[in-house]
Design brief:
By secondary structure, the chain is of the alpha/beta class. The protein has helices at about 1-10, 15-55, 110-125, 140-150, 160-165, 195-205; strands spanning about 65-70, 85-90, 100-105, 130-135, 155-160, 175-180, 185-190. The protein has one domain: 3-Layer(aba) Sandwich (Glutaredoxin). The chain contains six helices and seven strands, in the order H-H-E-E-E-H-E-H-E-H-E-E-H. The N and C termini lie far apart (about 85 Å).
């Protein structure tokens, strides 16, 4: 009897060992999933840029970012309620053309184009939504920048790098123009001239 118990017992799997193996498999699967998501995120930005360059109008990647500068005096009145929770998601701006400007306080071309954006936001007040997205910056420096140029539209802050990556940014400033349905109709890299800004806005209003 005792000789039979040995082989039978050795064929059983310890519950602890089983749980450890299952945990290891789950961890490997999780790491592989994160790697896939990270790879897809890296490819998403350049793909967006190439789509716009090819004349297509892809849907702009959504985000939900904290408000850095709540000045919404040039925004349509019905959108100002979006600031109640101190956050703005891009989907909340649907129904209006959007000029989305990525910037930072240390960026020299951003300083040069800031007055043009403020003037254009005033010119199109209530009709076009201007939104600044501050990236790779310090909060205090960013707010000083916005105050210095008397910025009359909302700016949000990307404290990480996800929005930067999703939009395929290669530097600053960069400006995206969205139509009322949230589709990207134009994209400008570098400092924008008044003429380029108005042409981008016209495209956003027209929806193509």
């Amino acid at each position: 009897m005792s000789g039979e118990a040995g082989p039978e017992g050795s064929g059983r799997r310890s519950p602890v060992r089983f749980l450890l193996q299952a945990g290891a498999v789950s961890m490997v699967a999780l790491l592989l999933g994160l790697l896939v998501l990270r790879t897809l995120a890296k490819e998403a930005g350049p793909h967006l840029v190439s789509e716009v360059k090819a004349g297509n109008t892809p849907l702009a990647p959504d985000f939900d970012l904290s408000v850095l500068w709540p000045h919404a005096e040039t925004w349509p009145a019905k959108l100002r309620g979006a600031l109640a929770d101190d956050r703005v998601s891009l989907s909340e701006l649907r129904g209006y053309p959007v000029v989305m400007n990525f910037w930072a306080s240390w960026c020299v071309p951003c300083k040069a184009e800031a007055p043009r954006l403020v003037a254009s936001a005033q010119r199109h007040a209530g009709e076009v939504v201007f939104l600044g997205v501050d990236v790779q910056d310090l909060k205090g420096d960013a707010r000083s920048f916005l105050e210095r140029y008397k910025t009359n539209y909302v700016s949000v802050r990307d404290g990480g790098s996800s929005t930067y990556a999703n939009y395929g940014l290669t530097g600053l400033p960069e400006t995206y123009y969205l139509d009322a349905r949230g589709r990207v109709v134009d994209h400008a890299v570098g400092e924008i001239s008044p003429e380029e800004l108005e042409a981008g806005i016209a495209s956003a209003i027209a929806g193509h």
